[in-house]
Every structure is written in structure tokens, then in C-alpha cells.
Design goal:
Length: about 280
């Protein structure tokens, strides 16, 4: 059965961030992820992880000025020094939180910039980041993100992400495969799981219902089938990663809004226990 990690940026928003760890553990999650930890001292987060028996499985490197609309630095000309400082900061947090994976966002395509030049810069930055991460036993992930949710984002397709990983050739550079983004952009999700998971280039999955990005039992994707595909292929290739629950509870940030929407996970766990 897939191991599910609660995305604490989107889930349990009725609580302050540091209180979401306890809420996730109470609902049976063993792993957590989120966008950014940098507003809180790493020691404070590490204590919440330890207190509640949780594993930190993923977070993002600094993305630039998020509030101003920036969505990563890795493909942006002239931001190389800031990018490297951000990777150093992310690796410090990863060490403190014992987190094996860091998602590095590409950024929005700057107006008037040639895409091939941006690709070469992106590759150089990813190569450098992977080298730094490998020295301390961490993985760097890149994620295709759909153009509806993030217009202008540099990376949108699975095939391009895997081509970039192959071009860099670092064993610790992998793809963050978000089933939601994949369905919105290109579809054929199950076959892409079967195609890419055995390559060793998939480091992490994420899920959400399509199209509203609510619970995975709402919308057009049949997640029980997709979980069974992940299980089947993982058993064949030895993959032991996590599935991040990166969705917005349809009930919103109300007391119990996340917890009462976890019937999809309970049903899947009960089915797996009967098999």
C-alpha cells in the first residue's frame, strides 16, 4: 500500500502551522511534506516531528519572492547566486529535519527569453544542486506543474522532466510526479506511472482530485485504481517512496475539515488490509 504523507501547507489549515503536525499524526499519517519551512526555526519543526513520530519526506527550496509571484529560481538568468544560497539553506534544513528530498522549482519563463538558453541554465543549476545534495545524502526533485494553475512555469510535462534528469545524469536528481498536474496537462496517468516508475527517476508522487484539487475521491481521476498501479509497479521495481496528499479540503479551513474528508484513505487502507 502506498505510504501517504500529509501536505501541511494545504491540509489542517484550521490550525497554526506548527500545530498541524499533531493533527496529521492523530489521523494516522506517518509522513509530512509542505512547501516551505523557512518561517520557523528548524529546531522547532524537528521537535514537532519527533514528538509525533513523523518523518519529514519533502519540502521546497527557497523559490525567490513567493509573495510577489516568483515560483522558483533555477531557470532565471542573473539569479544564480541567490539560487545557490537557497540550496545551501535548504540543505541545512534538510539536515536538521532528516529530510531526504528537496523540490527545486524551475521558475516562470521571463518575457523575451529564449527557452533553450533557459534550459541550459536550468541544467547547470540542477547539476550544481544535485552535486551539493549528493555530498550530504539528499535527493533533488523537479516537478512538472500545469499551466492552468501556474501560467508560464518552465516545466509542465513528464517527458521533458525525465529528459532533463537524464541530461544531468546525477543519480540523486529525480522527478516529483504529481498525478493532478499530469492529468490536467497531458492525461494517460496510469500508463505514465507504468512507463516512468521502473526507470528509477521517480522520487515522489503527489495526489489531488481533478479538476478542483480537492480530496482524491472527488473528481475525474479514479485514485484507487492508480494506487493499485503504483503498488503493482513498485513491487516489481522495488520503489519505496511516498505519496504526498497535496490537495485543498473541499470543506475548507474549518475545524475537522481535513479529518472528515479522509474517508478515501480509510477505505483504501481497509481494502489493503483485507487483501
Amino acid at each position: 500500500m502506498p505510504r501517504f504523507a500529509a501536505n501541511l501547507t494545504m491540509l489542517y489549515n484550521e490550525h497554526a502551522f506548527l500545530d498541524r503536525f499533531a493533527a496529521a499524526a492523530a489521523d494516522g499519517f506517518k509522513g509530512v511534506e509542505y512547501l516551505f519551512p523557512y518561517e520557523h526555526p528548524a529546531a522547532d519543526i524537528a521537535k514537532r516531528l519527533q514528538d509525533h513520530g513523523l518523518q519529514q519526506v519533502l519540502f521546497n527550496a527557497p523559490p525567490g519572492d513567493w509573495a510577489a509571484g516568483e515560483r522558483g529560481l533555477a531557470c532565471l538568468p542573473g539569479r544564480e547566486a541567490e539560487f545557490r544560497n537557497g540550496i545551501d539553506r535548504a540543505l541545512d534544513y534538510a539536515a536538521a529535519l532528516d529530510c531526504p528530498r528537496i523540490h527545486v522549482m524551475a521558475g516562470l519563463v521571463p518575457a523575451g527569453q529564449a527557452r533553450e538558453a533557459l534550459r541550459l541554465l536550468y541544467l547547470d543549476n540542477l547539476r550544481w544542486a544535485a552535486e551539493q545534495a549528493q555530498q550530504v545524502g539528499r535527493c533533488v526533485l523537479i516537478e512538472p506543474i500545469n499551466q492552468r494553475d501556474m501560467p508560464g512555469y518552465f516545466l509542465s510535462r513528464q517527458d521533458e522532466a525525465h529528459a532533463l534528469v537524464q541530461a544531468v545524469g546525477a543519480p540523486n536528481l529525480q522527478v516529483q510526479f504529481d498525478l493532478y498536474h499530469c492529468q490536467v496537462t497531458e492525461g494517460d496517468v496510469a500508463m505514465k506511472i507504468r512507463q516512468y516508475l521502473p526507470t528509477g527517476r521517480v522520487g515522489h508522487f503527489q495526489i489531488a482530485g481533478v479538476p478542483e484539487r480537492h480530496e482524491p475521491d472527488r473528481g475525474e481521476l479514479h485514485h484507487p485504481y492508480l494506487f493499485s498501479v503504483i503498488d503493482e509497479v513498485a513491487a516489481q521495481c522495488g520503489w519505496q517512496g511516498w505519496v504526498g496528499c497535496e490537495y485543498r479540503p473541499w470543506r475548507g479551513a474549518v475545524p475537522g475539515g481535513t479529518s472528515t474528508g479522509l474517508g478515501w484513505m480509510d477505505a483504501f487502507r481497509n481494502k489493503a488490509a483485507r487483501i
